[in-house]
Amino acid sequence: MQDLLYFLQQLINGLTIGSTYALIAIGYTMVYGIIGMINFAHGEIYMIGAYTALIAITGLAALGIAWLPLILIVALVCAMIVSSSMGWAVERVAYRPVRGRHRLIPLISAIGMSIFLQNYVHLAQGSRNIGFPALIEGGFRFGSADSFQTSISYMQITIFITTLICMSLLSLFISRSRIGRACRAVSQDLGMASLLGIDTNRIISATFVIGAALAAVAGLLLGMYYGSIDPLFGFIAGLKAFTAAVLGGIGSIPGAMLGGLILGVAESMTSGYLSGEYKDVVSFGLLILILLFKPTGLLGKPEVEKI
């Protein structure tokens, strides 16, 4: 019974982290699905969203506002607005001028933007860790008091519910809305979509904005979950989210969701049963293993060369 409770605890922890990886991974996979490029500045946008949420929470606390729902809503809205604006700016500055050129040029441009944003936050906020207030505390415990207990915190429940809502809304948006249908058309054939009257530049910008908004949600959630942020906060999470997107099938939104969950559970199980030092080894080893047998990822589809 104790072994089962311990396994459930690691599964809960893994799904918690995997849910946030999935939110960030969607930004990578949507951009790649539309223009076939990797937005390596996406992790820094996620980090900026976390810092924006912290600044909003601090400002509300200074004003004497203590009502938790209002604090969370304002922090989330501010983070999404700033991150979305940053995502739009990254597309305009780092991608649009070099779109259509050799793929190496946009890649270098994106890496340069990532370094710029990372150092900008480093200069503006300092290099030290900044504590993030634990706004949501408490939880449930299962098991007898004299043995191992499985716990699930209210923060973890909040992450699950928020992720589920965001994924559902994104799926409805992509399948039902006019912009969503245009996104699917552009991802299939950008040139033909342009000939049919779709404003491809606007659709590509919208893709960056949507991905950045979801990254901001993940930034607020993980900031509260871990309790601290720093200028490198986005680099590691962005790398893991990119791994999740490739694992699930880069360009596939369901694949990004699945890849994030698998990666989170793999890390948690490794930390729980082996050691936290091996979690990255197992995660990237799993990625290599899957790509050896299925190069397009779990749910990815091979590209069809148009002649």
From TrEMBL:
> What sections of the protein cross the membrane?
20-38, 45-65, 71-90, 102-121, 154-174, 203-226
Report membrane topology: Multi-pass membrane protein
The GO molecular function terms of this record are:
L-isoleucine transmembrane transporter activity; L-leucine transmembrane transporter activity; L-phenylalanine transmembrane transporter activity; L-valine transmembrane transporter activity
Residue runs in coiled coils: none
Q: Which family does it belong to?
A: Belongs to the binding-protein-dependent transport system permease family. LivHM subfamily.
Q: Which NCBIfam families match?
A: PRK10740.1 (NF008011)
Name of the protein described by the UniProt record: Inner-membrane translocator
Species of provenance = Marinobacter lipolyticus SM19
